[in-house]
Amino acid sequence: MISFPPRYRSALLHLSFWGVYFSFYFYQFGQDYTRRQVALGLLATVAFNAGLAYFNYFRLLPRLLRTRRLGEYLVLFAGPYAAVVALRVVADRYLLLTDMNRRFLYSAAHTWSVVVGVLFIVAFVSLLYFVTEWFALEARAKALENEKLTAELRYLKAQLNPHFLFNTLNNLYYLAYSRSERTPEVVATLAQMMRYMLDEANRPAVELNREIEYLTSYIQLEKLRLNSPIPITLTVAGQPAGRVVTPLIFMAFLENAFKHGVSTTSTQAWVRVHFDLTGSDCCYTVTNSKLPMPTARVSPAGTGLPNVRRRLALSYPGRHELQIEDRPHEYRIHLRLTL
């Protein structure tokens, strides 16, 4: 289906109307008059009708909507309207007069038909004015909505970035405090992730490859912090090349998996992250162990889940499915995105 920009829709409506009007009457009167008579008569009719219709369209209707003075509008419209009716009657008698229709052209019936016809044309073009205004209003509403959604996405991402930085600095502080030899490695990984957040994560979309690399770096940071042989895996089935996603859309789920499912004191903890890209969709699954009570009472949703739900609604409306399962011994989230 062909879609026209709002500024062209009005012109297309007007051209279509006058094209249909001219074609209809050209065919109708072509049976009784010569082509030259029909063409001249229709050109004069269209000129007079269009002159009045667009005088009303561009001058009188905007004035009426601005002042809301109907009486003033009718007074201003009556003079040009009467003049066009008179010119139409005279033009018809001069251009379309034959021995067969002389009586009709000089009758009151013909005059009344012109009165009604001109009024109909003006009313129809006026209707186009309101249709055009509706198109313009719709375009402005969509522009405002897009601006609002963009601002909201920026706000949500601004909430996410300090949250990640705060968590990572805590990890870095722990390693530095314990005088870990891995502190320089953590700093280097953190610098790489911050570069990604500053350079790429502010874009509307990023390559899925880069997003997976970012998640891998985060997992590496967590492994360094934990400093224990906890099984943490990230696997990818399929080819991420050529796919793009909203940046940092997967991060909150991974953070929650470490926050609520992994502890330096638990030897049974584990985290599994899997991307399934074998089909047309991107399927992302995070599964993590449950910590012993009372820590397990903490909701796995965390404060980041409402944020990511809203981002999904804004970035993938009608194109995502999120499932969260609280099983006896594990938490599992499954996110499907239609890219």
The Cα radius of gyration reads: 36 Å
Order of helices and strands: HHHHHHEHEEHEEHEE
Work out the helix count.
Answer: 9
Report, as a whole number of angstroms, the end-to-end distance: 22 Å
Q: How do the strands of the widest beta sheet line up side by side?
A: 2-4-5-7-6
Overall domain count? 2
Q: Kindly report the average pLDDT value.
A: 80
Strand content: 5-15%
Specify the biggest β-sheet.
5 strands, mixed
Find the structural class using helix and strand composition. Answer: alpha+beta
Number-wise, the strands total 7
The geometry reads as rod-shaped
Uncertain parts: 295-303
Helix percent band: 55-70%
General description of the model:
It is a single chain. This protein is α+β, with helices and mostly antiparallel strands and 339 residues long. The chain contains nine helices and seven strands. A five-stranded mixed sheet has the order 2-4-5-7-6, covered by helices on one side. A hairpin with a 3-residue loop joins strand 6 and strand 7 (330-338). Helix 1 runs antiparallel to helix 2 (35-67), helix 3 (70-95) crosses helix 5 (108-177) and helix 6 runs antiparallel to helix 7 (208-226). The longest helix is centred in the middle third of the chain and has 70 residues, at 108-177.
